[in-house]
Design brief:
Helix content is 23%, strand content 22%. The protein starts with a helix and ends in a 5-residue tail after the last strand.
Length: 320
């Protein structure tokens, strides 16, 4: 359960919950207020834009709506007699202004066609609504505003405020680049369009799968030489050597290291020991990676590709 809800949410079992206050009259209503301002149209739009690939987003005037959808099935086999499935959803409303209100409602299950076989619908909807709220507060510009509020009101450091915010939003999904991009000032005498955009460092792993067309979409970068055997590993999109933005490594054993979460399944699955652990401190997705140190030994069985949870690996047949 989101700790934010512990002392700020009012839950009412009423068909007309908070009637006249908000246009949400559902069976169950969750409401809490944040002590921050969100009045700048550009900031409001940034919340909408930052999450539109994660949730279904809508906006009307000073309100933003984030909807999460999930599917329920009455059995594991879609071909079985009597099989049914239904899409359910829950919406969080952000009311902006001099304070920010976060609201969600849970409708009766009958709203979705009366699928009475669905188990724990209200419990799941409540959980997903809190996940949406936590995701919004962790990833968007609201995170910066919440941290500033904690620093000011609780007299703590910026670092302590960020830690507290993480503790308050344990259900948050990590959404890279959900905040507005920082403006890059052009040096004196130089046109603004000549200045490259600042490179954003994601808060965690990028969502998979790997883009199989990366070689035509991402610029080649400095290769990495394996100290033990001298193999040169080609890279694309690598920025510097501090491991924050690593891009894709490997010509025919290709791994997007900004997606890789280092669970080690590829190392265990490879029958010819292509991979070995490689320390990557500073990378937001993981502090180590499975380096394709013996890439020329690959036998193209694609076992590693099949077991990678975030689908960060693509094996290309080596040209002869």
């Amino acid at each position: 359960m989101s700790l934010l809800l512990k002392d700020r949410v009012y839950t009412m079992e009423s068909a007309t919950a908070k009637r006249g206050v908000y246009p949400l009259h559902g069976y169950k209503l969750g409401l809490y207020r944040l002590p921050i301002k969100l009045e700048d149209p550009a900031e409001i739009q940034s919340v909408f834009d930052g999450l539109k690939k994660t949730f279904k987003m809508d906006r009307f005037a000073d309100r933003i709506y984030a909807t999460y959808t999930w599917k329920e099935e009455n059995g594991p086999d879609p071909d079985a007699k009597g099989y049914e499935e239904v899409e359910l959803n829950v919406t969080v409303e952000i009311v902006t202004g001099e304070v920010v209100d976060m609201i969600y409602q849970i409708f009766p299950i009958e709203k979705f066609g009366d699928p009475q076989w669905v188990q724990d619908y209200r419990k799941k909807a409540d959980h997903y609504a809190k996940m949406v709220i936590d995701t919004i507060l962790r990833n968007t510009i609201l995170a910066d505003k919440m941290a500033e509020s904690l620093v000011k009101n609780e007299k703590i450091s910026q670092e302590e405020a960020l830690v507290k915010l993480e503790e308050m939003t344990p259900l948050a999904k990590i959404v890279p680049n959900a905040k507005p991009k920082p403006k890059v000032e052009a040096p004196k005498g130089q046109q603004a369009e000549q200045v490259e955009e600042a490179i954003e460092v994601p808060d965690g792993a990028k969502p998979g799968p790997i883009d199989v067309e990366f070689k035509s979409k991402i610029k080649p970068s400095a290769p990495f030489k394996v100290p033990e055997n001298g193999n040169a590993i080609k890279t694309w999109g690598r920025v510097g050597a501090d491991n924050k933005i690593m891009g894709v490594w490997g010509d025919f054993v290709a791994v997007d290291f900004d997606i890789c979460i280092a669970d080690g399944a590829c190392i265990d699955a490879c029958p010819v020991n292509v991979y070995e652990w490689f320390e990557t401190p500073g990378n937001p997705a993981s502090e180590k990676k499975p380096l394709m140190a013996r890439e020329p030994d690959c036998i193209f069985c694609i076992a590693c590709e099949g077991v990678c949870p975030p689908q960060a690996i693509k094996i290309f047949q080596k040209k002869t």
